[in-house]
């Protein structure tokens, strides 16, 4: 019962006294005034997070061969004279929606946090999934990079996130601290998933900006964006080596850092509804990092550094693309030999140092199955390294899936549908 109801007292004749009628009128006025104030407060709160909606646009999709409805939502106070973080929110994809939070709530939070949000509606088109959607994901990033996506709006190329419907973004999750540098990751994850999901982690090919749009476009790297669209959690982590990168990955520091990243992702995942299974994907300067997580399994000398030291750093799979895996087996004319010798001494006299730097040379037995791929037109050095990796795995009896990319495009991540489809199938088998 309300205070007003409790305050009414009836006379012996059963009628309400005049004094209490006066009280009721005052209470009514207070209630009306309170309602007005509450409505005003709600209006002010909404205004603080209200967005400006531009007229709907159309975006031509390569995957669906149709134009898709696109809506631009600007946070309050959106400036046009400075770079802005962007979320492209992908609605109604073909893959089953895993996150259960409503689109309205998620988009509201993005706007509240200061992101420019662009929704792209795929209308459940059957091609809005891996592998076809990867072409769209690359084109979206390319248009943002070349200022074709949103004319007149300057986007921060280090903060461009392609987020599938039902997913959220957790940024700047710290996994390692060193003098002058803090290493962190950005995680896209299904919010309150229908069931726990696995996670894919990548160590950025951009040593300055982990989500650098330029490096992702340059390498045609759509792996994380595509797997997020299929319902996995994905994390882009800072590369262990700060900029400028000179092709040297010092050990044991690199192993300390990548293991800290896996442990931190596992710790975060326990709060986000993930199942604890993690697979790294590596291309170019990130490929050796992904391989190292497999080959150093259980080696305690690489544990105990960085964040979440009480968590497990094991991975359940790995996708390895073009890179360098061993420094004991190189082509005689490898262009990096002088740089290695300057850093580590001549190979004949410092063999242990050269062995310590190679991810493959920690492998001492059969490993978990890995997915390997390389482009047919990669450099001879890269082809030789992939052959050395496959040979060592065969010697130990390790299972592998190897697919050669037949489309000659050099040092880039594959966009071949059959390979992307097989890669996704591998991740489903290892992480679900």
Give a verbal description of the structure.
- This protein has 432 residues and is α/β, with parallel strands linked by helices.
- It folds into two domains: 51-143, no CATH class; 168-431, Rossmann fold (3-Layer(aba) Sandwich), CATH 3.40.50.
- Helix content is 34%, strand content 22%.
- The chain has twelve helices and 14 strands.
- The chain has helices at 3-7, 18-49, 103-112, 133-145, 213-218, 223-229, 253-272, 287-295, 337-344, 351-357, 380-395, 417-431; strands at 51-53, 57-60, 67-75, 84-91, 116-121, 155-164, 167-178, 181-190, 197-203, 233-237, 274-282, 319-320, 370-375, 400-405.
- The strands form two sheets. It has an eight-stranded mixed sheet, with helices on both faces. Strands 1, 2, 3, 4, 5 and 6 form a six-stranded mixed sheet that branches.
- A hairpin with a 2-residue loop joins β7 (167-178) and β8.
- α7 (253-272) crosses α8 (287-295).
- The protein is globular, with a radius of gyration of 27 Å.
- The model is unreliable at 1-49 (pLDDT under 50).
Output the radius of gyration. 27 Å
Overall number of structural domains: 2
Oligomeric form: single chain
What is the strand arrangement across the widest sheet? 7-8-10-9-11-12-13-14
DSSP summary, beta strand count: 14
SS strand fraction: 15-25%
In CATH, the homologous superfamily of the largest domain goes by the name Alpha/Beta hydrolase fold, catalytic domain
Inertia-based shape: globular
Helical segment count: 12
CATH architecture name of the largest domain: 3-Layer(aba) Sandwich
Instruction: Let me know the average pLDDT.
Output: 89
CATH class of the largest domain: Alpha Beta
Structural class, by secondary structure, is alpha/beta
In the CATH scheme, what's the topology name of the largest domain? Rossmann fold
| Contiguous uncertain segments of 5+ residues | 1-49
């Amino acid at each position: 019962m309300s205070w007003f109801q409790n305050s009414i007292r009836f006379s012996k004749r059963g009628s309400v006294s005049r004094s209490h009628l006066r009280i009721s009128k005052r209470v009514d006025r207070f209630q009306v005034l309170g309602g007005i104030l509450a409505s005003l407060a709600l209006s002010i709160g909404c205004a603080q997070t209200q967005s400006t909606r531009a007229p709907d646009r159309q975006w031509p999709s390569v995957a669906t061969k149709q134009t898709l409805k696109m809506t631009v939502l600007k946070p309050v106070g959106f400036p046009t004279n400075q770079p802005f973080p962007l979320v492209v929110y992908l609605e109604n994809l073909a893959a089953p929606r895993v996150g259960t939070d409503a689109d309205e709530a998620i988009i509201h939070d993005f706007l509240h946090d200061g992101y420019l949000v662009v929704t792209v509606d795929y209308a459940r088109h059957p091609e809005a999934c891996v592998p076809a959607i990867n072409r769209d994901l690359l084109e979206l990033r390319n248009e943002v990079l070349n200022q074709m996506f949103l004319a007149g709006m300057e986007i921060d190329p280090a903060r461009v996130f392609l987020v599938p419907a039902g997913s959220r973004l957790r940024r700047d999750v710290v996994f390692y601290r060193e003098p002058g540098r803090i290493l962190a990751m950005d995680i896209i994850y299904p919010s309150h998933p229908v069931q726990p999901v696995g996670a894919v982690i990548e160590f950025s090919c951009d040593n300055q900006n982990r989500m650098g749009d330029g490096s992702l476009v340059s390498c045609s790297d759509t792996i994380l964006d595509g797997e997020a669209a299929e319902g996995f959690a994905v994390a882009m982590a800072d590369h262990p080596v700060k900029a400028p990168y000179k092709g040297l990955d010092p050990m044991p520091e690199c192993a300390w850092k990548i293991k800290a990243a896996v442990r931190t992702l596992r710790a975060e995942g326990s709060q986000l509804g993930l199942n604890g299974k993690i697979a790294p994907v590596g291309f170019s300067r990130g490929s050796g990092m992904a391989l190292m997580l497999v080959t150093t399994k259980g080696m305690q000398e690489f544990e105990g550094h960085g964040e979440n030291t009480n968590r497990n750093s094991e991975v359940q799979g790995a996708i390895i693309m073009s890179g360098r895996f061993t420094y004991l087996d190189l082509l005689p004319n490898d262009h990096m030999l002088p740089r290695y010798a300057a850093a580590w001494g001549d190979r004949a006299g410092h063999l242990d140092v050269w062995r310590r730097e190679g991810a493959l040379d920690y492998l001492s037995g059969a490993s978990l199955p890995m997915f390997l791929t390389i482009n047919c037109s990669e450099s001879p050095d890269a082809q030789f390294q992939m052959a050395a990796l496959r040979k060592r795995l065969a010697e130990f009896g390790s299972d592998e899936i190897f697919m050669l990319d037949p489309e000659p495009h050099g040092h880039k991540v594959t966009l071949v549908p059959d390979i992307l489809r097989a890669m996704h199938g591998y991740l489903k088998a290892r992480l679900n």
